[in-house]
Design a protein that fits this description.
There is one protein chain. The two termini are 29 Å apart. The protein has two domains: 4-121 and 315-321, NADH Oxidase (3-Layer(aba) Sandwich), CATH 3.40.109.10; 134-304, NADH Oxidase, CATH 3.40.109.10. It is globular and about 60 Å long. The chain contains eleven helices and ten strands. It is α+β, with helices and mostly antiparallel strands and 331 residues long. It comes from Amycolatopsis dendrobii.
């Protein structure tokens, strides 16, 4: 007979965990994860078959995505009144295992972030004029929750604009990258509608100049560096940095990014993530040197007041996310 301290996760609890993970942001909305429930433990499995050789050649963004899913998984388990701890296997496809046991109610801040999971969207358009309040920004930065991740507001906006403008022009002219992005664009209306379950919604891309567009297409207008600097100065940017460039560091950055994003959602703010420029060879090291960042940048988060609703992203069926036996797990 099981005791309350070792009660396995019930089917309704498993369903809640799967729903929460399904709403996590991911590179090109590829949703590169599955869950495996083992009694009181939940494995978050990285889907190594999801590959983006031109956008994410090293799989770094895939791990960032798994980190965001891990943040949702942890919050959902706490919302189910479970105490949690997390371990990180050193090999295999399991990115992390969340260990649970019956516990008490979560802190109000954690519960608020959990309820924000379903409201969070990727907002790639221009924000309403004006940066967010200093007190709101402080609460966003307090939500990081990962001691190995430092979230900083980047200095020297003019320099950042110069660097991002260069990266934009490179990707806009890259035929192979453009072909990959088109393949991961979810055509959800018109003759090309495919009933997509993954990919970036076509309506979310638009033709606005960066940084509002987020993803660079052939038709994306690129303003000059002065205009781009003005646009960046009108937004709130947060760069997530780590000392190391390891699998564990990438997961931690993803967890921190999602926690900050959910806190922004709690505050009625919207946001989106820029990682595309950070994959150019030598680009991150150049950014560190030019901006004086406290570590390697893993992602740039932009946030502000939305002026319209962001379209929802397609999602895989929940049944596809729950695996009973996943090859490549802990050995």
């Amino acid at each position: 007979m099981k005791t309350s301290a070792t009660a396995d996760l019930a089917p309704f609890e498993t369903a809640a965990l799967v729903r929460a993970v399904s709403r996590a942001p991911s590179v090109h909305n590829s949703q590169p994860w599955r869950l495996r429930v083992r009694g009181t433990d939940v494995d978050l499995v990285e889907r190594a078959d999801v590959v983006l050789p031109w956008h994410d050649p090293e799989g770094r963004d895939r791990l960032l995505s798994c980190g965001a899913a891990l943040a949702n998984l942890q919050l959902a388990a706490q919302a189910l009144r479970r105490e949690i701890s997390t371990s990180f296997p050193s090999d295999g496809d399991v990115a992390a295992t969340v260990h649970t046991r019956p516990g008490g109610a979560p802190a109000l801040a954690e519960l608020a972030r959990y309820y924000a999971i379903g409201r969070r969207r990727s907002y790639r358009r221009e924000f309403a004029p004006g940066r967010i309040r200093d007190e709101d920004l402080a609460e966003l930065l307090d939500a990081v929750g990962e001691p190995t991740v430092r979230a900083v507001v980047p200095p020297h906006v003019e320099t950042l604009a110069e660097l991002l403008g260069f990266a934009t022009r490179v990707f806009r002219a890259d035929t192979a990258y453009q072909r990959e992005l088109d393949a991961w664009t979810a055509h959800t209306f018109g003759r090309r509608a495919l009933g997509a379950v993954d990919g970036v919604p076509e309506a979310a891309l638009g033709d606005a100049p960066l940084p509002a567009a987020g993803l660079v297409r052939r038709t994306t207008p690129v303003p000059d560096d002065v205009r781009l600097a003005e646009r960046l100065a009108a937004e709130t940017l947060v760069v997530f940095c780590t000392d190391e460039d390891t699998r564990r560091a990438h997961l931690a950055a993803g967890v921190a990014l999602q926690r900050v994003w959910l806190e922004a959602t709690v505050h009625g703010l919207a946001g989106s993530v820029l990682t595309q420029p950070l994959h150019l060879a030598g680009f991150r090291e150049h950014v560190v040197a030019r901006l004086g960042l406290p570590g390697l940048p893993q992602a740039i988060f932009r946030c502000g007041q939305p002026v319209s609703a962001a379209p929802p992203s397609p999602r895989l069926p929940l049944s596809d996310l729950l695996a009973q036996d996943v090859p490549g797990g802990p050995r």
